[in-house]
Structures are given as C-alpha cells and as structure tokens.
Design brief:
Length: about 650
C-alpha cells in the first residue's frame, strides 16, 4: 500500500501541522479521501465543545472492515495480516493472510447474525489474546454491532457492571485464556457475571484452554460449532453493513476520578482515519514491515495499534498471547528474533521490569530487524529510555514516546520515528490537527516568557477526528468530565511541561486517577471496592511512586471488623481479606500494594478527606505536609505517619 499522507521530513511535518491548524477540515478531508467510502461525506467537520457535539465526515457512508480487509485483497491477499504467537513458545504460531482473515471475519459475521445480533446491538468480548478476538472485533464492525471489549483481567463484578451499562445482549468469550503459567477460566467468570442477568441472549464460547465449562442450554453455543455450520453452507463472504461516519463503532470502558468506569464511545469514520493516519506517521510504517504491539486488545492501544490502525494500512500485525516473563524474561526478544519484527511498541512498565533482569536475557537474540521502538501508557524515565535505546534498539532505532488516552482514540503527542526529533522522557510535538495548550487552575493559558519551560494542565482547543463523542448512556457525564473544567476546552486530566522548542513532557495525572503499570485506575473505584468489605468503615486511596509499575496503590483503611475478626484475625489476615475483596470487585490489577490500618483519616471540618496529605505520607515526604491547620483533628496525621509502611 502507498500512503500519500505519510510525513517524510521535519519540514513536511511543519507544513502538515501548519495546514492542519489553518484549515482542519481541508486537511483531514485530504487524508480521508484515501479511504474506501461507499458514499463521500457532505460536511467534513462540525463541532461545539460546550455540548459537546463533534461530527466528522457527516453524511459519509463506509464500513471500517472494507478498509481493513476488502480493499487489500487484490494486492495483499496472500500477505500475513496477523501473526499469532502463543503463550507457550513450543506451540505453533499461526499466520493468517488477509484473504483468510477476510473469510473468517465474514463467516463470524454470519455467526453473529445467526445468533440474533443486529446492527447497533452491543456485544461484549471477553477473550484472551487469540486471533479469534480480532476476528470477533472485526465481525462486529462488519455487521454494525457495537463491540465492547473487556480486558481478561477484570472480575465478574466488573463485567456485570459493563454489561448492564452498555445494555449488552451478547457475549463472545473463551473457555479460558493462557497467560504465563496461569489458565484464566474466562467462561466461569462470565457465568458468575451472569448470575441473575436476564438480558444476555447468547454467549458464544471459543475453545482455547479446554478448561471444563458448563454450557447453558439455549444460551451458550460453541464458536467452532457455529463456524462449522456457516462453513458447511459454503459461506465465505458476507456483505459489510453500510455505516454512517458518525455511527458508533465501539465502547471501551475506562476509569475516571469519580464513580464507576465510563463507556467511551468512538465512531466509525473519524476513528478509522485517525487510527490509520497516526499508525502510518508515528511508526513510519513501510509496506511489508512486521509490527508488534504488546498491549492487550482489551485496552485502547490494542484497538488502535494492533487491530484497526495496522489492518487499515495493510500491515502485518503480531498478536502475542502471553506475558513478557514467560517462560523467561527473554520472551519479547525471542519473538522479535523468531518473527523478524521491525516495529516494537510496548509500555515503560514492561521495559523497567525487563531491565531489572539485566542484559543476559538479550544475549544471543537477533534484534537486527528492529527499525522503530515505541512506548505508551505512562511517562518513561530516562534510565529506562536509555536502556531501551541501547540494549534493545542498539542505538540504531528511534523511540517514539506516544502520549494519548482511551478518549483520544489515537496518539496526540509523539515524535515521528526518525522524522521529527526525539528527546528522552518527552513525548515531544503534537500530531497534525492537535492544538494543545497549558492552563493554570483557573483556566488561564500559560505563556512562556523567553526560553523558559512552563508547566500547566494539558488541554486541547479543537477536535481531531478520533476524539470521543460521548460516554455511553450519559452524555452529561462526558461533558462534565472532559469539557466543563475549562469551558470551551477538552481537558486531558494530565499535567505537562512545554519547553522552548514546543516539546511536551507529560508529568502525570492531576486528578484522582492512578496509572499502575500503564493501567488506568480511579482512586474512587478502588475505595468503593475496599468499602464493600464488611469490616471496613472508610478508606482513602492514593498513589505512590514505584520503580517498576510507575505508580502503586496505597490504601489507608479504618477497620472495625466483627468481634470474631478482631480476636482471631491478625492485621495480615484482614489485609489479605481486603485484597481478595478488591480482586473480586474489580480485578487483581487494582489490588493495593500497601494497606495501612488507621483509626482516623485526615479530614477538613467539612468532612472532606485531605488526600494531598495522604499522598505526601505515601510518597514518604513527611517533612513538608503543607497547611494542616484546616484539619479537624491534626493528631490523626501524626498517628498515620508513625504507622507508615
Ligand atoms: O496519564 C496519561 C497516561 O495514560 C493516560 C491515559 O490512559 P489510558 O486511557 O488507559 O490510555 C493509555 C494508552 C493510550 C494519560 O492520561 N499516558 C499515556 N501515554 C503516555 C502517558 N503518560 C506519559 N507519557 C505517555 N506517552
């Protein structure tokens, strides 16, 4: 494939950026015309951040899977679309060509239809990292059903919440998933999530681990049986549904600073254009290259840079089922060597954890095919950046530090590999079409004097094509969360620095959202989970720096268990009980690293917990706690400091 909109030089970048700001509609129309549309759009852009109401390519008709599959068949039909590397290195990898992927997606589209799924229905996908997950995603898109992928690490309760919020009637899952030495019983977890649920009509179960499962008559069917039936009918092609550019493509749940996770909604046209544009430009994809993004498809990174971005560009995308340390810490390097990977995209937390094993796992691994490295999900510290650059990239490969969010659909700030400058631990320059600004707490724009580096809250002035359109079922929540803090602006929730060259460095969240190993978790969500434990009176959760995870969770808990628990249970037992509660309510990823049982929490006279103080205590910065005069009971702080873990 040929990408006429690929930026080839720094001058090209500046020209594209300039044009994208002067004439956003003209700029994006000139990119969008290189896609397959059933009908061209009438209006390129209409927007108003106060509502918010954003519409790209209105009146345009398309199906994203025709762009990801059909349009490649003639020239790239026999090229691998997906290379799948299983959890266990001795199991055979699978290679799926574009032609085969197209056929499988069509057949599974038919399976969905046979099971009663209709355009606009919500389908929850709770699967491991097997090609069938990508097939299910694309089949939903092909028939116009809205997919909601739920990461395999979430608990039954989390799934149940998401099913309800999305009003989902269909689930596609697996018997189980292999992850390192573990076998996660996905279908059993789904069964737990469905206790008392009367809205789910069908559960399609794909075989992977052969873990025993119970199939409910009339509700549960096997993927393989359903596919066989379609294959036996000789169906190899199913027409894609014609979608409006602004029809929803998917919902993806993500944590905010309050309440339960919200369903971020992305739409067909704008998301497609931006996913492809950023994939081709940030990674400087060249036809024939093999792209390995280590994220899970359950996160936005896996949606955009394993699935839609690469496939819409006719790339070969590598899907890895396992984890970086199984069977040993050389697994990523083995995969790069074995499959001749050219682009490798991972999270700083993975880099730091592998760095801790030293350089031995890299020895003897041929990484000479690597051309571009990337990071995503959290700030990368300089030490990890240099290790990645020297030991993995052998000082030959540019590293793209891509800043973005579930809500943004694709990268908004990143250097373009080998084209625009890189700067360790800086995400650097905005993508074309992205108008950033830094503001103070009152929303006043910060302006640098001379060459100074300034800091502020990161906001965006105008929409790019893959900005979220709403939060499912609750548009007001979308407005309040992203567009109300600073009227007229999209607020990212992140703080950032900007240097004299206009480079941005993300400093982290400025709201009550934690970033643990690149996973986004709301403190309120963890507190709610902890508070569900019968013995917990109240809790407060904050983040603290962690050498591998970036941030870790510190929970301060007032515990007043039953008589039995108090006399027979040690603190350790209480803590492990609480951890189990969190695992049950959210999933293991939200488990606090430290739990301190306390008799009180620092509160203002109006009853508000002063998290600022707890954060400082958790960070070990007890010399300067700031103003504590407004505290109801300053004595509590001392007690907490004395008991610090
Ligand atoms: O705080 C930023 C951090 O991750 C948040 C978004 O999380 P999520 O929606 O889960 O998406 C992660 C993958 C796109 C952001 O608000 N973040 C993401 N990328 C970077 C980052 N922080 C620093 N540098 C990055 N490159």
């Amino acid at each position: 494939m040929h990408y006429p909109y690929q930026i080839k030089s720094l001058a090209d970048y500046h020209a594209a950026y300039h044009r994208s700001i002067k004439d956003p509609a003209g700029f994006w129309a000139s990119v969008a015309e290189h896609f397959t549309w059933r009908k061209k759009w009438d209006t390129t852009l209409e927007w108003n951040f106060n509502e918010p109401d954003v519409k790209w390519f209105q009146g345009g008709k398309l199906n994203i899977t025709e762009n990801c599959l059909d349009r490649h068949l003639e020239k790239l039909g026999n090229q691998p679309a997906i290379i799948w590397e299983p959890n266990a290195p001795d199991e055979q990898p699978r290679v799926i060509t574009y032609k085969k992927l197209h056929e499988k997606v069509c057949q599974f589209t038919q399976v969905l239809k046979n099971n009663g799924v209709k355009k606009g229905d919500r389908v929850c996908l709770y699967m491991g990292m097997i090609p069938e997950l990508a097939i299910a995603v694309l089949a939903c898109a092909r028939m116009g059903a809205i997919h909601s992928v739920v990461f395999g690490g979430f608990s039954a309760q989390s799934i149940s919440d998401r099913l309800q919020d999305a009003g989902a009637e269909f689930i596609v899952t697996c018997d189980g998933a292999f992850r390192g030495g573990k076998d996660i019983p996905l279908k059993n977890i789904i069964d737990d999530a469905l206790i008392g649920n009367h809205t789910i009509k069908k559960v399609i179960v794909c075989t992977r681990t052969r873990t025993p499962v119970s199939m409910i008559k009339g509700r549960d069917v096997w993927w393989e049986d359903e596919m066989k039936q379609v294959e036996e009918q000789g169906i190899t092609y199913v027409e894609a549904e014609e979608m409006d550019a602004e029809d929803p493509l998917f919902i993806l749940y993500t944590s905010g600073s309050t309440g339960k996770p919200k369903g971020v909604v992305h739409t067909c046209g704008g998301y497609m254009v931006y996913a492809n544009y950023t994939f081709v430009n940030v990674f400087q994809y060249k036809p024939g290259q093999i792209h390995f993004c280590t994220a899970d498809i359950g996160w936005i990174t896996g949606h955009t840079y394993i699935t839609y971005g690469p496939l819409s560009a006719g790339a070969t995308t590598l899907i890895f089922e396992g984890i970086p340390t199984y069977p040993n810490a050389g697994r990523f390097w083995d995969i790069i060597d074995k499959h001749r990977v050219n682009i490798f995209y991972t999270a700083p937390t993975a880099i730091r954890s592998l760095m801790a094993f030293g350089n031995a796992p890299l020895e003897g691994k041929d990484l000479s095919t690597l051309e571009v490295l990337g990071t995503v999900g959290e700030p990368i510290n300089e030490e990890a950046w240099h290790w990645y650059h020297e030991q993995v990239g052998k000082k030959r490969c540019p590293i793209v530090d891509t800043w973005w969010q579930t809500e943004t659909g694709g990268c908004l700030i990143s250097n373009l590999a080998g084209v625009t400058p890189e700067k360790p631990s800086w995400a650097t320059l905005p993508m074309p079409g992205v108008q950033l600004l830094l503001v103070d707490e009152n929303g006043n724009e910060k302006v640098a004097e001379g060459d100074e580096t300034i800091s502020g809250n990161l906001c965006i002035k105008a929409p790019w094509p893959s900005i979220l359109r709403t939060t499912y079922g609750d548009h007001e929540r979308c407005r309040i969360n992203y567009f109300a803090t600073y009227p007229g602006l999209y607020f990212t929730g992140d703080g950032a620095l900007r240097d004299k060259d206009g480079f941005y460095r993300i400093t982290g969240r400025v709201d009550d959202v934690l970033n643990v190993s690149g996973h986004r978790i709301g403190t309120a969500e963890v507190e709610n989970a902890i508070n569900m434990h019968a013995g917990v009176v109240e809790s407060a959760v904050v983040g603290f720096p962690h050498p591998v995870k970036g941030q870790a969770i510190y929970a301060f808990i007032i515990y007043q268990g039953s008589h039995q628990q108090n006399t027979h249970g040690s603190d350790d037992l209480i803590k492990s009980d609480i951890l189990q509660t969190v695992t049950r309510v959210i999933g293991a990823i939200a488990k606090p690293d430290k739990i301190q049982l306390v008799s009180g929490l620092p509160k203002t006279r109006s009853g508000k917990i002063m998290r600022r103080i707890l954060r400082k205590i958790a960070e070990g910065e007890t010399d300067n706690l700031g103003d504590t005069t407004t505290l109801l009971d300053p004595g509590v702080v001392e007690e907490i400091m004395n008991g610090k873990l």
